[in-house]
Amino acid sequence: MSAADQGTGTGPTPANHSRRSALIVLGLLVAAAIIAGVISGFASGSPDGLNRVAEDKGFSSLEQSHGAEGSPLAGYSTSGVDAERLSGGLAGVVGVALTFLVGGAIFLVVRRRPTTNTTPTDAP
Amino acid sequence: MHVPDGFFNAAVSVGAGVVAAGGVALCLRKARDELDERTAPLAGAVAAFIFATQMINFPIGLGTSGHLMGGALAAILVGPYAGALCVTVVLIVQGLVFADGGLTALGINVVLMAFTTVVIGWLVFRLAMGVLPKTRSSATGAAFVGALASVPVAALVFVGLFAIGGNADLSLGSVAAAMTGFHVLIGVGEGLITAATVGFVATIRPDLVYGLRGTLAREQAALAGGVA
Question: In total, how many domains does chain B have?
Fold first, then answer.
């Protein structure tokens, strides 16, 4: 409440912090792998909100077959793996890895570079 | 809420595709200011976490289920522009590899589940943070409200698009009422998951939570000033 309006951000110790932010990234990925690999097997099989409304209001028949129907992971199951939980869990873990790799690559490209790097204005 | 192929006519599908492409281009430029060496891998992990969580359909009663969309969560954790990219990456992977969400409807799905939920989730979060005391725990409540609001609004944008170019002649009022009703319930789930996740990260590494930038400095200043 006192006059402490000047943002006095305390400087973090860089080495310690980057290690702990790596831990958060790892923690999120492990959580994601467990959710997609194991917990997903217990998800509700009921139609979601949109599918339910489409059924109730009579427009669910508009749905066309999917262009990627032939994908080995179509419908969150792994083709060639018959055990349902394993098939779904495997597909989920592959999806988590794929999303992290694609997303991570994009974000590493667009991120702010250290100022010592050449800036885009140097481009010919 | 993954829209399949066939629900919308070509004009709306292509129009949404153009809006999605333009929006993604804008996000790619603006996300630069939100991400650095530490938060770029975090944004990738947030996308992966959203992919996983979207596999969990939770029951909302009435023989119906819903899952997290993740726009509010991503915006609060890594910033709105990077957040919209997170959900877009998830939708692209789901559409191309998992046959979830139509390929011609990809633009529509990006507009609904990436852009709408990020914009509403982020705005409501910021509004709530403006009203609540500037503390870390307020962020959990603000995250709940922002995420909750984002889902029924996305449902209404779906109805708006259906009014423009849906492939069926429906009573839009009754579709709007049904979509809103179910998606308020799904929104409660969205709010709970978002609040729990934001609360967790904010406890361990508050400085990594984009939505807490500024708040944290003030909190520390207040603590230093002897106001517990």
Answer: 1
